[in-house]
Amino acid sequence: MISLLIVDDQKHQVDSLATTMPWEQYGITKIHTAYSGQSASEIIRTHPIDILITDIRMPGISGLELIEYANEQNKKVDCILLTGYAEFEYAKQAIELHAIYYLIKPVRDEVLLDAISKIVDKRQNERQQHQIFEYATSIVHQNLPLLKENLLLELLQNTDISINQLTDKLDMYRIPIAYGQLVKMAAIKLDPYFYESYGAADMKLLQFAVLNMAEELLSEPFHIWACIAPQGHLIMLLLPKLKEGQSDVQWDSAQENIWLSLANKLTENVDYYLKGQITVYVSNPAQFPEEIHSAYSSIVSKLMKSNQQRGMIVSAHQPTPDRDIKPLRSLYEQPLLLRLMDTGNREKLNLKLSDIFAELEHSQSDSHAHLREAYLHMLSCFTYLAHKKGKVLEDIIGTASNRAEHNVIHSAKLLKAWSLVILDALFDEGPLHVDDNHRQLVNKIHSFIEQHLGTDVTLQSIGDSVYLNAIYLSQIYKEITGENLSEYILRVRMEKAKILLEQSSYRIYEITERVGYQSSQHFIRTFKKYYGVTPEIYRKR
């Protein structure tokens, strides 16, 4: 809908234009008229006006003054000036005031309508561009956390990005860090306990929980820009906020003490609320953005080489018990893991793995670098054995081989369980000897099912949580427990439904949702088949 205001001190000319022209054909549905500049300015003040047709010379307020008033009111009005005087000064002022057309009276109808048509087309194009811009802006706003995280990851990995591109993105993403400012980088390393206790999806939630805790604690004295690094560590850039009277940001002793106090508080909060510990590594001040990649490389090197220093704050200038990295001795001593796989002697293989994990768990104290060394060495051996048997490793562990490093290298216990499960599959043994590792796998499966019973319990989702192919997961679960996994899931659902019927006032459709069924009819049929009666009858017993 477009609105038009026609202004002239000649009443008959205003009325004639308002009533005789086919305005509706051009999308103009609202027409205002005024016979003086004064009354026109009131209409502009109180009504949304899109197009203004005005005479220049009028008593009191002239057409040029009227356009100037509309501009002062921030009204986006397109103006057509009508005048009987072809004077240069008028034309000059019209241009300065951004009038669209300057027409000499008398104006032929087709000339005026052609001007109107072009203005309408221009406004429609502007409206479309504005809508596109608003849509793009809303998309950016909706995805702002992800966009900010990806930009920080680019800087950490030294991705080539121009100064102009980075400046534009910092402004668009509302990141209050400028070129040349000194920032500190903090890397948060999570306790192996978290990785041993939570699946991949839950770990994502836990990582976000830790970052939220950090932002709540640190956001008052510091600007914070955070991301989750590829290795699973949490990375934050910290910039002190300007205090009253300050003209430049400084990392002075006061800021250092504030940071240290809050970082210690963060470790305490994580321990109290999430029941696990973190270690925080902090860099020296680094110039943004030139020194960000080198600061990241330095802090990750320190993090990878360090033994687990749980609950500590490790600053760049502090002496740490880090030592020179040496190869994991047990990997390269005779007999080699690869040779044992060639011979197929499972007993000696188990002894070899016991030696490797004993060194990892005791001598190296879960050193992140040595966990990755062991993981890559074993993955290479497993791949060799799979190929030798005419298989692809992904047939056994699915896509877990591509993402396992982000999970199993955080804990020697997880790596051990992962390796033994894959060996079982590769050697295609008969009934499994159920040991602690297999019991741990079954416990993790049962825990996942209990936690996700009302949402997402499928072979695929369970397999993803323990890094196993869904088909192989089903097979190994049957061999360990003697029960089909689908039967166990059904039994858990039915037992929970029975308890809810006995001990709660939930309606049938509510119980349906809580035990993971989409349809009440399907739940009722399944319950009747399992217990011999419908849920309603069972409740009345």
TrEMBL record:
Keywords: Cytoplasm, DNA-binding, Phosphoprotein, Transcription, Transcription regulation, Two-component regulatory system. SMART domains: HTH_ARAC, REC. It comes from the Bacteria. CDD domains: REC_YesN-like. GO terms for biological process: phosphorelay signal transduction system. Its main location: cytoplasm. GO terms for cellular component: cytoplasm. PROSITE patterns: HTH_ARAC_FAMILY_1, HTH_ARAC_FAMILY_2, RESPONSE_REGULATORY. Residues 443-541 form the HTH araC/xylS-type domain. Pfam families: HTH_18 (PF12833), Response_reg (PF00072). The modification 4-aspartylphosphate is found at D55. GO terms for molecular function: DNA-binding transcription factor activity; sequence-specific DNA binding. The keyword DNA-binding applies. It is found in: Cytoplasm. PANTHER family: HISTIDINE KINASE-RELATED (PTHR42713), TRANSCRIPTIONAL REGULATORY PROTEIN HPTR (PTHR42713:SF3). This is Two-component system response regulator YesN. It comes from Paenibacillus endophyticus.
